[in-house]
Specification:
Layout (H helix, E strand, L loop, with lengths): L1 H15 L1 H25 L6 H5 L1 H35 L4 H26 L4 H26 L3 E3 L3 E5 H21 L5 H29 L14 H25 L2
Antiparallel strand pairs: 1-2
Helix pairs in contact: 1-2, 2-4, 2-5, 4-5, 5-9, 6-7, 6-8, 6-9, 7-8, 8-9
């Protein structure tokens, strides 16, 4: 039910106006960065919620208005100002607090800005569909293959449940899914989709492992219980945040060189 609602919101907003999708992305990222900040507190890092939450609309607005160049400028503007504000609010543990803040801003609103870049296009539905298919195939079939056949841990010191068998299942499913979406939705060569599927397995898996490493370091199971049965918003965005920039870059190259 939760997944169906999210899919309906994503593609419903894109069908009406991509700007609505951008607003939904901003709202989701504001919740996600607040989740991460609350997780920080369990690790002894104290940053005001409002400071990190305020970074999201600035960064996402820049991505919508000025594409990737203004997104990069917004990252520099926001991170430097956040460090200055943290210094004046409380200089204690400045390195730890400012490092955590800059990481949160890069990880959530900056990488999330590429969702807006993907959607701010004449072919927004197909581009976001490509991202959804890639990450969904990776996550779903990595889980299923791991449950059914998993015997050899992939990264036991980070995520004990991930297995090499799960990775093989995600590679097979994601390359097929990417080939189909490239052929039927983007009207590009299927083999390009297969190559990008391999790339997406790497980015999505690394994104998932990064969040697992954060949760292990902070000694928490889920970022929150915002989504019943699914954990927090960030628990659903981990692979998407790492895959969106890669998909955006590839699609830009594909369009530029008419591959």
């Amino acid at each position: 039910m939760v997944s169906a609602t999210i899919i309906a919101l994503v593609f419903g907003s894109l069908a009406i106006n991509p700007a609505i999708f951008a607003v939904l992305v901003a709202v989701a990222l504001m919740i996600a960065i607040r989740e991460l900040n609350h997780a920080y507190r369990t690790g002894g890092v104290s940053i005001p919620d409002w400071l990190l939450v305020a970074s999201v609309p600035i960064t996402i607005g820049a991505a919508w208005l000025g594409k990737v160049s203004l997104l990069a400028v917004a990252l520099a503007f926001v991170t430097t100002n956040v460090m200055v504000i943290l210094m004046f609010l409380n200089p204690a543990d400045f390195v730890k607090r400012s490092t955590a803040a800059v990481f949160a801003i890069f990880y959530i609103p900056f990488l999330g800005g590429f969702l807006v870049l993907l959607a701010h296009h004449d072919n927004s539905v197909a581009r976001i569909l490509t991202l959804v298919v890639l990450t969904s195939c990776n996550d779903t079939f990595a889980y299923l293959s791991g449950v059914l056949f998993g015997k050899h841990p992939l990264a036991p010191h980070i995520s004990p449940k991930k297995t090499w068998e799960g990775l093989i299942g995600s590679v097979a499913a994601t390359t097929v899914g990417a080939s189909l979406v490239f052929h039927f939705a983007l009207h590009r060569h299927w083999w390009l989709g297969a190559l990008i599927g391999l790339m997406a397995v790497a980015t999505a898996t690394c994104g998932d492992l990064i969040e697992s490493a954060m949760k292990r370091d902070l000694h928490i199971k889920d970022m929150s219980n915002f989504l019943p049965g699914h954990g927090g918003i960030l628990d659903r965005l981990d692979s998407i945040l790492f895959t969106a920039p890669a998909v955006w870059a590839v699609l830009e190259l594909v369009n530029r060189y008419q591959l």
